[in-house]
Design goal:
This protein is an alpha+beta fold. It is built from two helices and seven strands; from the N terminus they run H-H-E-E-E-E-E-E-E.
Length: 107
C-alpha cells in the first residue's frame, strides 16, 4: 500500500513539473519590434524555453579568435572564429580563456 502511495505522489510531482505550452512569438509585439530594430531574430529558441527570445548578431561575427575574451559571443573551437549570434543554442565546442576546448550544450 505504501508503494502505491509513493508512486502516486511521484506521479503528481512529475505532473507539476510539466512545462507550459509554447507561446506564440507574436504575443509580445513590443519585444519583437525592439528585437527586429536591432537586426535580431525573434522566436522560440531551445527545446526547454517556451517563451520567445531575441537572438542578436554579434559585432565580431566570423572574426578570428584564440581565446574566449577575443569575442563578444563565443569563440568556436572548430573554426577559431567568433560566433555569429548571441545567445547560441545547441551543443558546440568552444575555446576557453586558456585556449583549451570545452563542449557545452545550451538549451
Amino acid at each position: 500500500m505504501t508503494r502505491f502511495l509513493l508512486l502516486g505522489l511521484a506521479l503528481v510531482a512529475l505532473a507539476a513539473c510539466q512545462t507550459e505550452t509554447r507561446t506564440d512569438p507574436a504575443s509580445d509585439p513590443a519585444g519583437q519590434a525592439d528585437c527586429e530594430a536591432q537586426d535580431g531574430r525573434w522566436g522560440v529558441a531551445g527545446a526547454f524555453n517556451p517563451n520567445p527570445i531575441c537572438t542578436l548578431p554579434t559585432p565580431d561575427a566570423g572574426q578570428s579568435c584564440s581565446v574566449e575574451s577575443d569575442c563578444s559571443g563565443m569563440c568556436m573551437a572548430d573554426t577559431k572564429t567568433c560566433s555569429t549570434v548571441s545567445p547560441l543554442f545547441g551543443c558546440h565546442v568552444f575555446l576557453d580563456e586558456a585556449g583549451e576546448t570545452f563542449e557545452m550544450c545550451i538549451d
